[in-house]
Design a protein that fits this description.
Helix 1 runs antiparallel to helix 2 and helix 3 runs antiparallel to helix 5. The chain has one domain. The longest helix has 41 residues. 80% of the residues lie in helices and 0% in strands. The chain contains five helices and no strands. The chain is mainly α.
Length: 157
């Protein structure tokens, strides 16, 4: 199988980061335009980027810069453990905020019909990408371990 050159890898990585930025912009733009004091910008963006990036690495690892970097993969396996707990804590913080403050704290300044639609969008979008990011961040270290095992045992029967 043909491998990608370093120049092609850089181009592919840049295209993926461009895709991730475009997707994040399209998904977060309605919230930005309608809800001025949305308190979960950073976590929402982190979930989007984590979901796309970890999913990409799970399925397309051999076409990334991590493909032949043993120590990077080894370090990421152990760094993903606290990262998963951080992602879970962020989802818990969002749910606790909605339970304690109420949905009006997120989009209370909008008219009632727009408020209901926007809260539905925010909740579903946040939950989708949060759960997707958590699941992909849990699967990611296992994929890295399989990759390390395959590279180390390539020449063995």
């Amino acid at each position: 199988m043909q491998t990608l050159s370093s120049r092609q890898l850089i181009l592919v990585e840049l295209l993926w980061w461009l895709f991730t930025a475009l997707l994040a912009t399209l998904i977060l733009l309605p919230i930005y335009l309608k809800v001025p004091n949305y308190p979960f910008w950073k976590m929402n963006l982190l979930y989007l980027v984590t979901f796309v990036t970890c999913t990409r690495f799970i399925f397309l690892l051999r076409f990334t810069f991590l493909a032949n970097r043993f120590w990077w993969k080894f370090a990421l396996i152990f760094l993903s453990i606290p990262f998963v707990f951080f992602l879970i804590q962020g989802l818990n913080t969002f749910q606790t905020f909605l339970d304690e403050q109420g949905v009006e704290a997120v989009a209370g300044l909008l008219p009632l019909q727009q408020q209901d639609a926007m809260l539905n969008y925010i909740y579903n979008e946040f939950l989708l990408f949060a759960v997707g990011a958590i699941i992909s961040a849990v699967v990611f270290p296992f994929r890295l371990a399989v990759s390390i095992w395959r590279v180390r045992n390539r020449n063995q029967a």
